[in-house]
Design goal:
heterodimer, A: 260 residues, mainly alpha, MetI-like fold, 2 domains, B: 259 residues, alpha/beta, Rossmann fold, six-stranded mixed β-sheet, transport (chain B), ABC_transporter-like_CS (chain B), ABC transporter ATP-binding protein (chain B)
């Protein structure tokens, strides 16, 4: 409408799109500059050009492996979120259950997941399931903790309100507490997203069959550092895409929070 | 409509029991507007929460419409100091919350929502989210949400105290009009003498902890009343001065003094 509005829209596009892109360009430029300036052997640190070359040598193969890893991440993440939400709701509903279950959950979370990978191999063999289980193990905890924090953070005035209306526990839960918890749930989801990718890669590196983790494990064996970097870049890109996807869903589901 | 009969409230504090309210007895008639005034910490809100059934008296009992209050009643509506709106619900959906919780049909209440929005000047904002509204408008929504219950009694806990002075006066005048239209029994807790004088039929002045009724002051000024310019300035000034001295002298009195 007015000049002022147009100006603010341009500046919003700049802060939301321009600045992130600029950040990436500067980082890749610095990476390139350093490898070129110090004549670093691509065996140690390949330049961005080497990585792109490697990718272009076998793009279908690498994209196929990315897709494999992504599927494991998505399935595992979905299970972790569903499980995490159910557990968090149960724990928030009953103090007794919470007191009993919390040390166990914290203990499970504290176990180094890499150490579990060989066991998962013994239990489940090769294939997708041990990787998916690894994704779930690595990413469920933040979902639980943040959801519980959200469910127990209902402000006093809203609690008094539902009490004064004689709302049932279920009504209070569905109409007030759950929605109130959503922003916190999304904090957990954003923490869990990269963890899910890490989980899939741990599973694939320790127990390689397919997927980008297996590519990295294989490139180590064949001294193909640029290939490992290509796989890493693809993982990073996957992570960024997933993160912004979650942030996008948050914008849709929690508009009152994003607006502030 | 409301009988408060020898009600006391003692909380268990960390360093022993804290007596918040001692032996308050009051009768509030149907359609009466009673304001409860006192310094902060005198137990005004505690008294209100006991009438609401949110808090059980340590001694004595409260009756609303002849029945002893043991839990919140759906014909008693509360308005809090904070608007307590659900941030994800539009203005009209927030107002509909009690209807949903009571399991009533929303369609039956649409017309009433329209009326309430119109009375409070919110018609143009019905689809807005709370964070898009000013504090005064948010408190208006909260008032509408209480009124949709068609309450026999409205309990208001310093509802305007977080607002700026002008908005406060505006809302107080509006509330007076609503009270005159609907004849709802209202108990209104405040620490503002000005609000008490504008709104109340009677003012219960509470002493400091433990809260006791120091005096019940009648406000015989005819309605509708307004701030500042009116024909009863002398009376307003007189009653205000009386309330003021009652509240001020409070600290010098022994804690056991009664009415």
């Amino acid at each position: 409408m007015t000049d002022f509005d147009a100006g603010s829209r341009t500046s919003r596009v700049w802060t939301n799109v321009g600045l992130p892109i600029l950040g990436v360009v500067i980082t890749v430029g610095a990476w390139w500059g350093i490898t070129a300036a110090f004549h670093i052997d691509p065996f140690y640190v390949p330049s961005p050009a080497d990585v792109v070359d490697t990718f272009l040598r076998t793009p279908e193969f690498l994209l196929q492996e990315t897709w494999t890893t992504l599927q494991r991440v998505l399935i595992g993440f979905a299970i972790a979120v569903a499980l995490g939400l159910v557990i968090a709701v149960t724990l928030a509903a009953s103090r007794t259950v919470e007191r009993m279950a919390m040390p166990i959950l914290a203990a499970i979370n504290a176990v180094p997941k890499v150490a579990l990978a060989p066991l998962l191999l013994v239990w489940m063999g090769f294939g997708d399931s041990p990787k998916i289980v690894m994704v779930v193990l690595v990413s469920f905890f933040p979902v639980i903790v943040s959801t519980m924090a959200g469910l127990t953070s209902t402000p006093d005035d809203l609690q008094e309100l539902t009490r004064s209306l004689k709302a049932s526990w279920w009504q209070t839960f569905v109409k007030v507490r759950l929605t109130w918890a959503l922003p916190q749930v999304f904090v957990g989801l954003k923490v869990a997203t990269p963890l899910a990718i890490i989980g899939a890669v741990i599973g694939e590196v320790v127990n390689p069959d397919r997927g980008l983790g297996s590519v990295i494990a294989g490139s180590g064996a064949s001294n193909d550092t640029p290939l490992a970097f290509a796989a890493l870049v693809l993982l990073a890109v996957t992570g960024v895409v997933l993160f912004y996807l979650v942030a996008g869903i948050e914008r849709l589901l929690v508009p009152w929070r994003v607006a502030k | 409509m409301i009988t408060i009969d020898g009600v006391s409230q003692t909380f268990k504090g960390k360093s022993g029991p804290v007596e918040a309210i001692r032996d308050i007895s009051l009768t509030i008639g149907e359609g009466e507007f009673l304001t409860v005034i006192g310094r902060s910490g005198c137990g005004k809100s505690t008294l209100l929460r006991m009438i609401a059934g949110l808090l059980k008296p340590t001694k004595g009992e409260v009756r609303v419409a002849g029945e002893v209050v043991r839990e919140p009643r759906r014909d008693v509506a509360m308005v809090f100091q904070k608007p307590a709106l659900l941030p994800w619900r539009s203005v009209e959906d927030n107002i509909m919350l009690p209807v949903e919780i009571f399991g009533r049909r929303k369609a039956d209440h649409r017309a009433q929502v329209d009326r309430l929005l119109e009375t409070t000047g919110l018609t143009g904002f019905r689809k807005r989210l709370p964070h898009e509204l000013s504090g005064g408008m948010q408190q208006r929504v909260s008032l509408c949400r209480a009124l949709i219950q068609n309450p026999k009694v409205m309990l208001m806990d310093e509802p305007f105290s977080a607002l700026d002075a002008l908005t406060r006066e505006e809302l107080a005048v509006e509330l007076q009009r609503i009270h005159m239209d609907l004849g709802t029994t209202i108990v209104f807790v405040t620490h503002s003498i000005q609000e008490a004088v504008l709104l109340a039929d009677r003012v219960a002045v509470l002493s400091s902890r433990p809260g006791q009724v120091r005096r019940l002051v009648e406000i015989p000024i005819p309605r509708p009343r307004s701030f500042g310019h009116n024909a009863h300035l002398d009376q307003v000034a007189g009653v205000s001065a009386e309330l003021h001295s009652l509240l001020l002298s409070d600290t010098h009195l022994p804690k056991t003094s009664t009415l």
